[in-house]
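Workshop exercise sheet. Pairs work together: one partner reads the sequence aloud, the other fills in the structure field after running the prediction. Swap roles for the next sheet.
Pair: D.N. / O.F.
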Amino acid sequence: MEYITLSLLGEKVSRIALGTRDCGKRSPKDIDEKVAAETMEKAVEMGVNFFVTAPAYGFTENEKLLGKFVKERGLRDRLFLSTKAGLRWKGSENLGRGSAFRDASKVAIIEDCENSLKRMQTDYIDLYSIHWPDPLVSYEEMAEAMKLLREQGKIRAIGVSNFSPEMMREFQKVVPIHAIESLYNMFEREIEIEDLPYCLEHHIAVISYRSICGGLLTGNMEKFEEPKNAPFRKAAVKLQEWAKDSYNISLGTLAVRWGLDRGISVALWGAKRPTHLDLLSTLWDWHLSGEDLEEIESILTENVPSNMKLFFGKPPPTKETMRTS
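Structure field:
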């Protein structure tokens, strides 16, 4: 396992963070607590000390699972725990994808934090992040809420997710940002233009989510049958061949190693069961060379036009949108 020190916090964390959204699947009815605990146990055994969750993952159930696991095994002082604020959902029955909406008001953030602390059975959260920017709330209001929580000792570090540099600048007028969660993988690279340089300049840790592009960068094409995605599927096949021929590794290993070697601080890795963590054992003690990165870039350039975007998923709506839906 590789570790990195978060510069503004001085905390040493694993460069792979276990994302617990997949541990508990998407609905309370889907959760297998035994398998989830076994998955988290294996992650710890492999050297992962960074765990990421959110109230919206499993609609609060995943926070409870993580909190129970950590408390029962007495691991709180050994693990770096992260959760989020600013997403809520309509109703309590038949919860599913699409029911969540943004609410990052000061009242909501503080209430979310109190609820997360209770569910996770802890007195503090190591990294607390705003899940999505909320266009109905000022950055000053969001930042004031986070500043208050940090002053109260309920959170140790402040994070944001899916924020642009302009948003971060406004937020930082009130309080520092220690980390950002951003969408980043071989096919979705918009943060390279402004976001990543800004974060490197301001010593903000970058945590990449969707590092394997929803499974496409493991060779799983099922969710990407939309005709517009054909160039991406073709590129994935070519990259898979290159990974096998060059290093005898899987496409998933290549995708994660690529992100880490491109400047990402930590890559999120979701796992539904212990076997999904096996890939981690092939990530370490080697790096992609400059020549490797050039060859990978050639494969991407030859197969995917620079102006093409992947057709996959949409961000959650705002509170006002949900009121009228």
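Discussion prompt: Residues 230-247 form the longest helix (18 residues). What would you look at next?
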